[in-house]
Amino acid sequence: MRAYYFDNLPGDQRLPHDYVPSRPVTREALAKMNVLSWTIPVEGYAAEVDEIARARGYKNRDTIDVSREGMGEIYESKIKGFFEEHMHEDEEIRYILGGSGFFDVRETPSDDWIRVAMEPGDLLVLPAGIYHRFTLDETDRILALRLFQDEPKWVPHPRSEATDANVHRLGYLRTIGVGA
């Protein structure tokens, strides 16, 4: 996993969009945003991922193949939706089994994007209430294990005045020391 500030230049969202020179973001800086990460080799990953799942109360899981082959006719609409800025009322947990892609998270209060480049063996936890988005990179494929605390669900709430006032968004801001 490699994290850095997104350059905000126009162009293909699947490109790295890294400043020159790069402006890296450490795991410690992400942790202050309650964005947690681990690197776990894919070969023999089950025991370590199971331990994290137990410790964090994840009870369910599935695998998603985000690719033209894996999603068929809904691929283009899903990729477009994944890249729209949104938040969830639950943690979003992904362990990358194959392929690669990017999670972008909003830094608060600066509102800058931080891009997290994900590869096989990377596990990322995005807290409930954080604004984020996802895109593939130029490989156009990622195979991810998704973990859930309850029944599998993925409900995006696009950024708006309503989500700015959402109880999960406000709770997130309090946990990182921003706002009331």
Automatic annotation (TrEMBL):
Ligand binding (Fe(2+)): H86, H88, E92, H132
One Pfam assignment: ARD
Keywords attached to this entry: Amino-acid biosynthesis, Cytoplasm, Dioxygenase, Iron, Metal-binding, Methionine biosynthesis, Nickel, Nucleus, Oxidoreductase
Pathway(s) this gene product operates in, as recorded in its UniProt entry: Amino-acid biosynthesis; L-methionine biosynthesis via salvage pathway; L-methionine from S-methyl-5-thio-alpha-D-ribose 1-phosphate: step 5/6
Keyword Translocase appears in the UniProt entry: no
Xref: Gene3D superfamilies: Jelly Rolls
Function: Catalyzes 2 different reactions between oxygen and the acireductone 1,2-dihydroxy-3-keto-5-methylthiopentene (DHK-MTPene) depending upon the metal bound in the active site. Fe-containing acireductone dioxygenase (Fe-ARD) produces formate and 2-keto-4-methylthiobutyrate (KMTB), the alpha-ketoacid precursor of methionine in the methionine recycle pathway. Ni-containing acireductone dioxygenase (Ni-ARD) produces methylthiopropionate, carbon monoxide and formate, and does not lie on the methionine recycle pathway.
Protein name as annotated: Acireductone dioxygenase
Gene: ADI1
